[in-house]
């Protein structure tokens, strides 16, 4: 863009843009701008026309008394603060080529209904630029997943194994039962899990009991009644409760995702992998994770999906597709966060693992594929979910390398 000047031909240099204000008041706070030879600190207001200042009655609002620069597209009137001092004005149309404005308008208004503003042009982005952008977007999404982990760490006084257990349990519940499983895990004292970890029946009885799945009277089911008896015994030793707000659901779930199956698989995982947290941290490939999670529900569930009702015989093993979801939503956020906490950088290791995981399949990802966007792994699919949710649907095209590149190419 070159050097900037106010409408009065004073040179302008921006040292700090400041913070974008999304509430009432000037558009940017804590900006630092040199105008002429004077360095100013204050707020910046943006309008299409300078006369909008008066149309919005800013001259009567004390919040606008410290505006140091008025940025407009068209300067159609001189603007003054409440004390009658003139506000320097930067006129953007003096610096932005008309073809860029046309390209920007086309980007948003070319089609009335479309998946992305940039449409098919997203697939024309430079492969190097696109790959770097996707990697950055992936880590943005990873950081977002980390927020819940960070909150749990503070609650548990940095008990990483407990936090891992809570997050893992939540994601064993998948979308429909995730919140219910999350609350179940939070209620359990993890020191108790450590004490009963060498007894899979006790683990199952605790998980099923706290989930409210042992409250019925089922005659003749040795497994169910054994769990129920074990849970009543454990309630005398540990603070366990069956009273909670949300009960796991079976409705709208495929049988392999029934809470009975998932809780049994989780119990068997902690029974077979006594040091699962440290093993996960040490894993450096997807295959290593697959080996750690090569578990199945207890033998009873080979011929059942719910208590007391037999089905065809079929071992209920964790599938690679399900483990992939655990890698995406639990293992890598925990691995990244723990390593940062310990002062180590495992970014390359995380990229290596996520690049070995197959891309998920959902409407957003499928729409990107229809635009000829290559999504060979979960790194790209997770990144495009971040792109769509945080940039595309919010029309933040100027903050996206694709949108920025399209406009720059037409300048």
Plain-language structure description:
Helices cover 48% and strands 11% of the residues. It contains 16 helices and nine strands. The longest helix is centred in the middle third of the chain and has 29 residues, at 127-155. Strand 8 and strand 9 form a beta hairpin. The mean pLDDT is 92. The strands form two sheets. Strands 1, 2, 3, 4, 5, 6 and 7 form a seven-stranded mixed sheet that branches. A two-stranded antiparallel sheet has the order 8-9. It is an alpha+beta fold and 411 residues long. It folds into two domains: 4-95, no CATH class; 156-356, no CATH class. It has helices spanning 52-55, 98-109, 127-155, 160-172, 174-187, 190-196, 200-210, 222-237, 259-272, 276-282, 286-292, 320-341, 347-356, 363-370, 378-392, 401-409, and strands at 4-5, 11-16, 19-20, 28-35, 38-49, 67-74, 89-91, 304-306, 309-310. The radius of gyration is 29 Å and the shape is elongated.
Q: Radius of gyration from the CA trace?
A: 29 Å
Report on the biggest sheet. 7 strands, mixed
| Helix and strand composition category | alpha+beta
Number of domains: 2
Pfam family, one: DUF2851
Protein name: DUF2851 family protein
InterPro entries: DUF2851
């Amino acid at each position: 863009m070159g050097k900037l000047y106010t409408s009065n031909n004073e040179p302008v240099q921006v040292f700090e843009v400041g913070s974008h204000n999304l509430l009432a008041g000037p558009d940017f706070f804590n900006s630092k701008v040199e105008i002429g030879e004077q360095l100013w600190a204050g707020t910046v207001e943006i309008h299409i026309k300078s006369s909008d200042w008066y149309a919005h009655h800013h001259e009567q609002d004390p919040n606008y008394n410290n505006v140091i620069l008025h940025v407009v597209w068209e300067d159609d009137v001189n603007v003054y603060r409440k004390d009658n001092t003139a506000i320097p004005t930067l006129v953007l149309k003096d610096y932005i080529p008309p073809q860029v404005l046309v390209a920007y308008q086309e980007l948003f208004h070319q089609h009335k209904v479309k998946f992305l503003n940039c449409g098919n042009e997203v697939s024309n982005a430079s492969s190097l630029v696109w790959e770097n952008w996707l990697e950055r977007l992936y880590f943005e999404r990873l950081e977002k997943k980390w927020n819940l982990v960070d909150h749990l760490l503070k609650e548990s006084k940095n008990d990483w194994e407990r936090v891992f257990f809570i997050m893992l349990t939540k994601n064993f519940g998948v979308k429909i039962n995730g919140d219910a499983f999350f609350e179940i895990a939070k209620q359990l004292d993890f020191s108790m899990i450590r004490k009963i970890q060498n007894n899979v029946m006790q683990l199952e009885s605790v998980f099923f009991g706290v989930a409210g799945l042992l409250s019925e009277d089922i005659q003749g089911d040795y497994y169910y009644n054994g769990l129920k008896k074990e849970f009543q015994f454990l309630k005398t030793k540990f603070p366990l409760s069956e009273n909670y707000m949300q009960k796991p659901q079976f409705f709208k779930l495929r049988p392999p995702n029934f809470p009975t199956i998932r809780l049994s698989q989780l119990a068997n995982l902690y029974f077979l992998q006594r040091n699962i947290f440290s093993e996960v941290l040490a894993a450096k490939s997807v295959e290593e994770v697959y080996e750690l999670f090569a578990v199945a529900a207890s033998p009873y569930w080979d011929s059942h999906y719910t208590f007391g009702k037999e089905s065809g015989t079929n071992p209920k093993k964790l599938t690679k597709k399900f483990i992939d979801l655990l890698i995406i939503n639990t293992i890598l956020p925990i691995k990244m966060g723990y390593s940062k906490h310990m002062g180590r950088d495992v970014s390359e290791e995380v990229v290596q693992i996520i690049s070995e995981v197959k891309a998920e399949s959902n409407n957003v990802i499928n729409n990107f594929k229809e635009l000829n966007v290559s999504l060979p792994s979960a790194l790209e699919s997770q990144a495009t979910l971040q792109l769509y949710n945080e940039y595309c649907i919010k029309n933040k095209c100027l903050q996206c390398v694709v949108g920025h590149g399209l406009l720059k190419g037409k300048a």
